[in-house]
Amino acid sequence: MVMSVLLGFIYPPPPSVFITAMSVISGVSLASSGLSEIRGKHMQYSKFWNVGSQKSTAKQIKIGSRTGMLVAYTPAFLASLASFALLPHQGFRCVLLNSALAIHFFKRIFEVLFIHKYSGAMILDSVITISLSYCISTATMIYAQHLTQGFPEPPVDLKYVGIVIFLVGISGNFYHHYLLSKLREEGDKEYKVPKGGLFDLVICPHYFFEILGFVGISCISQTLYAFSFTLGTTFYLMGRSYATRKWYLSKFEDFPKNVKALIPYVF
What we know:
Blueprint: H1 2-6, H2 17-39, E1 62-64, H3 65-86, H4 92-114, E2 121-123, H5 124-146, H6 159-181, H7 205-221, H8 224-251
Antiparallel strand pairs: 1-2
Helix pairs in contact: 2-8, 3-4, 3-5, 4-5, 4-6, 4-7, 5-8, 6-7, 7-8
């Protein structure tokens, strides 16, 4: 019953052990990472990853945050661009998906170069892990879409709805990243409570809109892998937003208690 309803919204899973395995691995690993964030075990690239940790990073190789973010995002961006040349003559949905992924990572690289302010460094091991994760997930999503060629379209066509959701998500994410960048001048390392936009309701509206962006990508794609990746990403960002709110509560005595983590008035 559940599968029949699901098949109304997605392509039939392709006869690919790789895509099936990656759908499970991607969703479960991202959701587990979100649970780890809630439990206080953070990825080694955020302002709160070492809160309460006694682990020394003296012997770990570090690189500048701007360089680290470029290394993290560029391979996935190049993979999305390469798909146009490596997989030509595909359908409209494939072109939409590849374009959405390219725009998503181009925006991230643009923000790294011109929007974000930096005050620290990143652990090289974490940079490599993040970069591989983004690149592999992007390539897998494109490949999963490629395997749908010749399959009948899902009964419910969501690609146009997906375009709208994606544009709302990427625009909202960019706007709130811009607001965050205006909190500090260049060289200023002091953290402040964000204001404006949806920051008056949630501390991580940029994550909220990032989730919307991936929901849009999933609706454009309508493959099992895309929805599995988006579900895992949602759980991960829920964990990240929970940890972020906890960090602000620990650093600012006047942090407004009514400001939620990710979803206004709810979570």
